[in-house]
Design goal:
Order of helices and strands: EHEHEHEHEHH
Distance between the termini: 59 Å
Radius of gyration: 17 Å
Number of helices: 6
Strand order of the largest sheet: 2-1-3-4-5
Number of strands: 5
Largest sheet: 5 strands, parallel
Shape: globular
Length: 167
């Protein structure tokens, strides 16, 4: 039996500081993952080979992070029917807006889910991947529900503290 995992591809090692949030979040939920540097433009054949190999080994979700032209998520989606989540990186003169547009402008039939630019997107990519895997994993689904409850309680505690300080 293969254990489903998330494959995380980054266009460059400069994406790692932001994508560390993805790794940490998946690890906190106990979700197995692999990480690779792979470029849609500089290593297209290696990208396609890795996607095919990961598919065969049980990859359930791909996360692709890239900046500027940000074609990595689309290049991955072209070679798999597994869900692909694109994380636009905040870089270049447009601060990631170009990467966001590149990620969301996919042709019909080759979908890429896109999350926010930068750190929030990196975190949400991990959550979305975990939610996809939780469709078949009740333990993971419960960990996600518990996380939501902890977050709600933190906000409630902050609100109680605020209200007390206003009295």
């Amino acid at each position: 039996m293969t254990i489903p995992f998330v494959a995380i591809l980054m266009g460059s090692d400069s994406d790692l500081p932001v994508m560390k949030i993805t790794l940490d979040t998946l690890a906190a939920f106990g979700v197995p993952y692999e990480v690779r540097i792979s470029s849609a433009h500089r290593t297209p054949a290696a990208t396609a080979e890795y996607v095919a190999d990961a598919d065969q080994r049980g990859c359930a979700v791909f996360i692709a992070a890239a900046g500027l032209a940000a074609h990595l998520a689309g290049a991955v989606a072209a070679h798999t029917i597994r869900p692909v989540i694109g994380v636009p990186m905040e870089s270049g003169p447009l601060n990631g807006f170009d990467a966001l547009l590149s990620t969301v402008q996919m042709p019909g039939g080759i979908p890429v889910a896109s999350v926010a630019i930068g750190k929030a997107g990196a975190k949400n990519a991990a959550y979305l991947a975990a939610q996809i895997l939780a469709l078949q994993d009740s333990g993971l689904a419960q960990r996600l529900k518990d996380d939501r409850a902890r977050t709600a309680e933190q906000i409630a505690a902050q609100n109680r503290k605020l209200q007390a300080s206003l009295k």
